[in-house]
Amino acid sequence: DPDIQHLPIFAVSNKLFGRFFSTYHDKFFETDAIARFLVSYQHYLFLPVMGLARFNLYLQSWILLLFRNEPAPYKMIECLSLAGFWLWFGTLVSFLPGNERVSYLLLSHALCGILNLQITISHFSMDVFNGICQDDWILHQCKTSMDVTCSKQMDWFHGGLQFQIEHHLFPRLPRHNLRIARHQLLKLAAKHDLPYCEMSFLEANIKTLNCMKVAA
What we know:
Elements: E1 19-22, E2 27-30, H1 33-39, H2 42-66, H3 75-94, H4 101-121, H5 137-144, E3 147-149, H6 155-158, H7 164-169, H8 178-192, E4 198-200, H9 201-215
Parallel strand pairs: 3-4
Antiparallel strand pairs: 1-2
Helix pairs in contact: 2-4, 2-9, 4-9
């Protein structure tokens, strides 16, 4: 996933140190003094930042729609939808007692941080490449993504995001079919000796934190 470039807060690999151009963000990243300081503590900051990461998604949505020169179909509808959300959410929060509004805002978004956590643990500890990848498409996705194992009864909790390898290979596949695709891909990986990484939710979190600690 190209969206693993989070300087100045996170650097999941030493390949992201120094100065490099991000084709995803369309700008140069550089490990300046602030980045070096924050990255050195990134394994401690990881979970707290995940609890606040939804605010960054709001910001990135507005930046894309208002300030970036990229094609955004239905831009006006997107802007009206975002504005409508904040009107609804602001009205909802206004009905709470004044001393509970900030705590509700932070707690509700921290719970949504599980979504950000689910996405990052599937990529942060995997291979990182800078430049043009020489691997074929399937091998590339197997190297840079991992699946999170869980029972079928827990699919509702992960929302299909636990099947990141399948999602990257078949981005339009409905999430209720991702588990079926996983079984087929496991056979393909075994047949052609492809790397296929899958771990439990806890194991994936530990692996991610260890990876970030090494990079720090």
